[in-house]
Amino acid sequence: MVEARVRGAIGDYFKFRLSRPEILNRIGDNIVVFGFITPEVGELIFDGMLRNVARRLRDELKLRLVMSAEIRRNLLARCTQDLSHGGRGVGNMLESVFINPLSRALFEHSLEGKQTVAVTTINEVDKIVTLGLQLT
Predict the structure, then answer these.
(1) CA-to-CA distance for 43 and 28, rounded, in angstroms?
(2) How many angstroms from the chain centroid is the CA of residue 51?
(3) What stretch of H or E contains 40?
(4) How much is the mean pLDDT over the chain?
């Protein structure tokens, strides 16, 4: 139903508002209407992105990422609180509340000889997120 309404609105726009139906004909059936992301799908997207972060830490810095279930739940809640921006919105929030703070925190530590980075805390003061880390 949503797809039919979106396609109808697009057709009306090109035909009646722009008076250029030939442009719509050039686009043809190449319009993809994405559905809304459910919380369950948002969590799957989040988990996939978090796995990518862990993989990059392992591949590039030889560090294993560890976090408690509570830290993961905190990150998940932050990253999926507004799913109206789709998967890209989940990724943008993960970057803001985890990847960037993690990068800043890692720069403050010597990584030589370290094998594990454990995220111990997430703090937010004046909309600036910081992470507590333990490197072993």
Answers:
(1) 34
(2) 12
(3) helix 39-61
(4) 94
| CATH 1.10.8.60 domain residues, the chain | 39-135
Which amino acid is it at 3?
A: E
Pairing of β 128-135 and β 64-67: unpaired
Structure token digits, residue 49: 């992105």
Which segments of the chain does DSSP mark as H helices, in order? 2-12, 21-27, 39-61, 69-80, 86-94, 100-107
- Output phi, psi for 58, to 5 deg: -65, -45
Residues 10-63: tens digit of each pLDDT: 999 999 999 999 998 898 878 888 778 999 999 999 999 999 999 999 999 999
| Nearest by Cα to 2 from 36, 38, 40 | 36
Look up the CATH architecture of domain 39-135. Answer: Orthogonal Bundle (1.10)
